[in-house]
Amino acid sequence: MSTTPGIRRRRSAGRRTGSPEPIDLSLPVVAIVGRPNVGKSALFNRIAGGRIALVEDIPGTTRDRVYAQTEWRGRAFRLVDTGGLEAEGRFSDLVRRQVEAAIAEASVILFVVDAKEGLTAADLEVADLLRRAERPVLLLANKVENPEREQSIVQFYELGLGEPIPVSAHHGRGVADVLDIVVDILPPPAAEKPPEAAQVLRIAIVGRPNVGKSMLVNAILGEERVIVSDIPGTTRDAVDTALLFDGRPVILIDTAGLRRPGKRGTGIERHAALRSRRAIERADVAFAVFDLLEGFTAQDAHIVGYVIEATKGLVVVGNKWDLVRGIEGVTKESIARAVRARLRFAPWASLAIVSALERTGVRELLTEAWRIREERARRIDTGPLNQAIRRAVAERPPPSVRGRRAKILYVTQPEVDPPTFVFFVNDPAAVHFSYRRFLENTIRRAFGFDGTAIRLVFRGREEAQKAKES
Ligand code: GDP
Questions:
Q1: Could you tell me the distance, in angstroms and rounded to a whole number, from the CA of residue 320 to the centre of ligand 1?
Q2: For 256, how many CA atoms within 13 A lie in the half-sphere containing its CB?
Q3: For residue 237, what pLDDT is reported?
Q4: C-alpha dihedral, 386 to 343 to 304 to 217, nearest 10°
Q5: Spatial CB neighbours of 238, under 8 Å, sequence gap ≥ 6
Q6: Atom 17 in ligand 1: residue holding the nearest Cα
Q7: CA of 150 to the centre of ligand 1 (A)
């Protein structure tokens, strides 16, 4: 476990406005909310340690809120304590304003409740607002300083914000663990996406109605520790749930739990498709679930197409294995052959066979998703990349397209997640579709990327020249 933050206590306790240091306003915000006297300030001081900076004078920030710039495990963020609002006005207005302000600017919200006092009406009021927010919320039960109190925190499940995490802002207990989770769910820094971006895994679970998406979600949640369930209304299209899988954070983006709109007809279909696409967009890896009893249908292939278009990781999940395993001639191999035959356009896709009902294959599914997540974060050095491509091109030169032959000058992988390969060529239009596929296969044979779509981009000669000169 990491060391407890805030060991260096502030010298001027009670005075938060030390010498103002510049705060980087581009950093993500972690907001602490909760009713008065639950220990928000104590938690703020504990996390910010000696580094408390600033205050009212930062442009674009509201008076009466206390900010600090701090960092954990190398991730810098701004911490805000909205508690300054407590001093004035009617209570419920204050709570509302405080929470709304936090929702507006925070990437992660720490909702503090008081284990000594127990659950209060005001807690429920705050929770109501937070459940509707489009932000991840961690529920912290503060003042947990003895075993009895630890027992008592189950009462906070009633807030509907997932598992209460026991902490003691005074003693520092549990705070490091909370920060571990916080930095994992913070969005990546805007400027740089580090190659080791595989900090959190976002999985979209998509598929036609009745293939067993909901049951699969339940099977996953039944196995793993849920940190935050129903991350409040992330969008109206999906329910997000954060969980820990082997100690690593996973966010499930689940379109299944939502009931389909009441209207009948094609509108429903279109709506479902849109919802799946949005869920896929937000994910690293999609589980495209199909029903083994019905086989892999054209509609299933269509959904797989969305995942490929979005350049995401893909696991095609055949569900209801329990229903087909007794059928004569049906084996996992025969299923794989049949599905692969329909997935010729994505031979790199992963395939899994599970029973959501019996919860078989579920752990393997998450392990595979993490593997794919890491593949997506991989960057290939320019040297070996060009070597592999040059060799392949020598063996199979580009065919001419309408009298013009493509020449590949240089390849780089400027981006990860999705892995993106830029080919500088004399004439992008001269690269035939089938040759693009050959180049993609070459990259895959040499460097892997199993389970994820990758992107190939072709650029003309002038750009290539510039890239070489710089
Ligand atoms: P969704 O619409 O994709 O979310 O599908 P549901 O999870 O609601 O499942 C549709 C139906 O299939 C329900 O009656 C489930 O009980 C059933 N079902 C889901 N997974 C399995 C499975 O692995 N085996 C069996 N036998 N039935 C399943």
A1: 7
A2: 21
A3: 61
A4: -110
A5: 204, 253, 254, 255, 258, 275, 278, 279, 282
A6: 212
A7: 37
Residue 157 buriedness (CB in 10 A; 0-12 / 13-18 / 19+): middle
- Per DSSP, the chain holds a count of helices (H) and strands (E) of 14, 18
Q: Is the overall model pTM greater than 0.90, yes or no?
A: no
Alpha helices in 294-406 (DSSP H): 298-309, 321-324, 332-342, 362-376, 382-395
User: Ligand 1 pocket: which of 215, 218, 276, 327 to mutate (most atoms <8 Å of CB)?
Assistant: 215
Output 86-92 pairs: Cβ under 8 A, ≥24 positions apart: 86/36, 91/122, 92/122, 92/125
Tokens of 460: 């003309």
Alpha-carbon distance 109 to 136, whole Å?
A: 6
Does the Cβ of 214 fall within 6 Å of ligand 1? Answer: yes
Distances (CA, A) of 412 to 399, 422, 438: 22, 5, 17
Q: What pLDDT, on a 0 to 100 scale, did the predictor assign at position 259?
A: 42
Residue labelled with tokens 């976002």: 202
**How many angstroms separate the first and last alpha carbons of the chain?**
44
Q: Residue 353: CB within 6 Å of ligand 1?
A: no
pLDDT value for 118: 94
The rounded average pLDDT for each run of 10 residues, N- to C-terminus, in the chain (470 residues) is 37 39 76 87 82 46 64 86 55 71 83 94 87 79 92 89 86 89 72 54 93 91 65 58 85 67 52 83 96 94 94 98 94 96 94 96 95 94 87 89 81 89 86 93 96 93 55
Distance from the alpha carbon of residue 356 to the mean position of ligand 1, in angstroms: 7
**CA pair distance 203, 195, nearest whole angstrom:** 19
Ligand 1 atom nearest to CA at 319: 23
Residue nearest to atom 15 of ligand 1 (CA): 212
Give CA–CA dist 208/320, Å, rounded: 14
Any atom of ligand 1 within 6 Å of the Cβ of 208? no
Q: Are 269 and 311 in contact (CB under 8 A)?
A: no
pLDDT at 212: 92
375 and 391 Cβ atoms separated by less than 8 Å: no
212 CA → ligand 1 middle, Å: 4
Rounded Cα gap, residues 395 and 327, in angstroms: 46
Q: Are 15 and 9 in contact (CB under 8 A)?
A: no
How far apart are the CA of 131 and the centre of ligand 1, in A? 27
CB 203 within 8 A of CB 218: no
Contact 343, 302 (CB under 8 A): no
Collapsed DSSP state (helix, strand, coil) of residue 183 = helix
pLDDT for residue 257 = 46
322 lines ligand 1 (CB under 6 A): yes
